[in-house]
Structures are given as C-alpha cells and as structure tokens.
C-alpha cells in the first residue's frame, strides 16, 4: 500500500456565537509511505484543526480520513485511542506534558499503554532522551523545564512507540535554530529509513528543504504554490 494517509473532502465548521464558520472546506490530502509533508499558512487558517483531524484527535464535520486504507471516522473511543497509541505520534503546538510525571515517566507511560515490554521501553526512552540532549533532565518535572526542553520531551514521547505516522504542529517553534534543524532532520531520517510518514505544520522556512512537499492552507484547502 502506498497511501499511508488519505484525507477526503474534509470539512470542519465551528460555531462561534451565533455564526457558523467553515475552517476546512472539502480539503484533500494524500501522504505516501516514506513521505514528509510540510504545511504552512497564516495564523488562524486552520492548520492545527487540520492536523487534529488527520491525527484522529478531532472529528471532521464531514469527509473521510483513511489510515493505511482503513477509515478512522466513527470508531469507538477505545479503538481510537489504541490506534493513536500504536500508529500515530503527535507533537502538539504546546508540549502538553503531564504535570505530575517526570521526564522519563512521560515516555514510559505511552510505552506502557501500548503494551511495550518495560526493559525495551526503558532502553528506548534512554536513547531518545540522549538524542534530545535531555539525559540530565530525566527526573525533572515539566514545570521545572524550559520551553525548549519541554518541547524536546514531547518530541521524544511522540517517537517512543515508533509510530507509522507522525504529526507535528510547529515542533521547532520554541527551539533554537540548531536544535530546530536537528529535530526536523530526525523526523526526516525516520521517514526515509523506516518508511514512515510525517506531516508537519511550520512557519520555519529553514526546514522546508528537508521536506518532500510543501503545501499551503488557503481558504480551507491545501494547495501547492
Ligand atoms: N474548538 C473551537 N471552537 C471554535 N473555534 C475554533 C475552535 N478551534 C479552532 N477554532 C477557530 O478556527 C480557526 C483556525 O484555528 P487553528 O487553531 O486551526 O488555526 P492555526 O492555523 O493552527 O493558527 P496558528 O498558526 O495561530 O496556530 C481559528 O479562527 C480558531 O479560532
Ligand atoms: Mg495552530
């Protein structure tokens, strides 16, 4: 199968006071195995909304989302969270760490929920934290981390279960230039070598050359420029 992820005619409206606003308007997207797609667009254009729908965190008003050929719309909550744990990695615009867990525990929790063996999970957590230059912060709580450190924990956590598809919402926003580039290079490496797929929302021109395709969210649709 070559199309890992497919969005078909996705529409999403929000009620805002008495008004109905259409944020996504029959949006289509196909992402292949081994493909890394960047999405750009002005603030408020619907990038996070699009990414949440693609990553099974938000239901569209209409349209279909297919992951490895199977529809993820209308699944039971339980089934959806299993799917997210096993197949999807999500890096949020804000790091979204769990306040009462230490750095290492953030990674171990998602591994445990996905049923990974503890020794294997511990080894993988250590490797990822090393890669993110976070080894020295292993036992720190999120509120004692800098913004960039928090974001790096979130990135390590998203890689923890070796997801087939990675969604990243401005993953480099709170990182310095060198670290930002490192992170995107890491995503690219995973995508290429392990035949993963990734969709990244970004405002950062410097990382676009690492992506296979750049799309713009305009008037509720994804377009090439
Ligand atoms: N739950 C919601 N209820 C009502 N309106 C919403 C909701 N979520 C998003 N919106 C609106 O939809 C529009 C798109 O929001 P979204 O967060 O997708 O934009 P974005 O492109 O990610 O912006 P940014 O670059 O600032 O992160 C915004 O006007 C926002 O206010
Ligand atoms: Mg956003």
Written account of the structure:
- The chain is of the alpha/beta class and 225 residues long.
- It has one domain (3-223): P-loop containing nucleotide triphosphate hydrolases (Rossmann fold).
- It is built from six helices and ten strands, in the order βββαββαβαααβαβββ.
- The protein has helices at 47-54, 77-87, 103-113, 118-131, 147-160, 177-193, and strands at residues 3-16, 19-32, 36-40, 62-67, 70-71, 88-91, 165-169, 197-201, 213-218, 221-223.
- It has a six-stranded mixed sheet, with helices on both faces. Strands 2-1-4-5 form a four-stranded antiparallel sheet, with helices on one face.
- β9 (213-218) and β10 (221-223) form a beta hairpin.
- α3 (103-113) packs parallel to α5 (147-160) and α4 (118-131) crosses α5.
- The protein is globular.
- 37% of the residues are buried.
- The mean pLDDT is 93.
- The protein binds adenosine-5'-triphosphate (ATP) and magnesium ion (MG).
- Residues 14, 16, 23, 41, 43-49, 93 line the site of adenosine-5'-triphosphate.
- It comes from Tumebacillus avium.
- Residues 5-225 form the ABC transporter domain.
- Belongs to the ABC transporter superfamily. HrtA family.
- This is Putative hemin import ATP-binding protein HrtA.
- Pfam families: ABC_tran.
